[in-house]
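Exercise 7. Given the components listed, write out the predicted structure of the assembled complex. Treat all entries as one system.
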Amino acid sequence: MASTLTSSAAKLRKGQKTRQQILDVAADIASAEGLEGLTVGNLAKALGMSKSGLYAHFGSKEDLQLAVVDLARQNFEATVLPPAEETPKGLPRLYTLLLSWADSIDRSTYRGGCFFAAASAEFDGRPGPVRDEIARLTKAWIDLLVDGCKSAKRLKHLKPNADAAQLMFEAHAFVQEANWAKQLLGDKTAFHRAKRSIHDCLERAATAKGKKSLL
Amino acid sequence: MASTLTSSAAKLRKGQKTRQQILDVAADIASAEGLEGLTVGNLAKALGMSKSGLYAHFGSKEDLQLAVVDLARQNFEATVLPPAEETPKGLPRLYTLLLSWADSIDRSTYRGGCFFAAASAEFDGRPGPVRDEIARLTKAWIDLLVDGCKSAKRLKHLKPNADAAQLMFEAHAFVQEANWAKQLLGDKTAFHRAKRSIHDCLERAATAKGKKSLL
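Answer.
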């Protein structure tokens, strides 16, 4: 009984590990060739697995796409959020969050750069569950940034007339632009530019108290 | 002889018109489903034409993709540049150029919004002639904006310390962000936000003389 359980647990662990390995390769393919370019066939080839082996993990192409989106969400949460959670609330936390996001994309090992930028450009014209999930996650991220901005206003780190939605429109734009310029034009200064623009846009909206956290 | 020429000219006009009609439909498909989603097969289906009829116009999928990119370039030049050419040099021209670009994307009838944004996200990880052409055209557009900024500095519409490349990084980012937010999140305020941010970023860098052209 014990050995059966051990063996089942080992199989399960092996299964989970394989699923994770599959998803890592799938996310890399999807970042460069698009989620639509991610087929059970070319993924099996990249992994040296059989198609039937893959179907045991993912019932359909859409299941596979949704699993890749979920992996990207997990990676995002594990990379971008922790540095901010360790930083004092208000403007310091918001600034850390934005820089940590920019760094995570700049250091991305995916061939296609930011997974969500590539996926959203690909799926914005394709209605369905994959598009809905990408939009939901992206909207949640922008809402989190706007909430961070409002918290910074309450703590008097940002001026009372600072427009949280407009500020975060700009800060979000700078990081997406840097990803685009680096990926398409090979612009190595792009993330440096984005960070400078983020700093300047927060500084303009900051109070004297808030400015100290941007040094 | 005369009637043969007339008949050949009519055929040529018919051929050219058909090529143009094909490309309009192809660009719409490509904006929503990607240039890679644009195949001779699905384009023939959308047009109610035979595949062989299409191959008479385009020898390969790559030829078709490059022709669609060239059509997008022509549309861009015909829509975005004329309003600026009628505006005085310096900051007025640069500001008109940016607003005219934003409007052209906001009013785009393509399902996928800005053709170049969709195409660059799709092709940044796919080396080859299509990617090279998209990068070349996009780079030329940014260079034109930076040149416009430098001209505005020479005419003392922008302050001597204005950083042309950084300003255009920001302005370009706002328009791309608006396209993204409208397409993915259905954000109807996005282009309004982008224009406000463009105005404010130019105003901060403008001299008293230059500010008059931003009213």
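Discussion: DSSP finds ten helices and no strands in chain B. Chain B touches chain A through 42 residues (CB under 8 Å).
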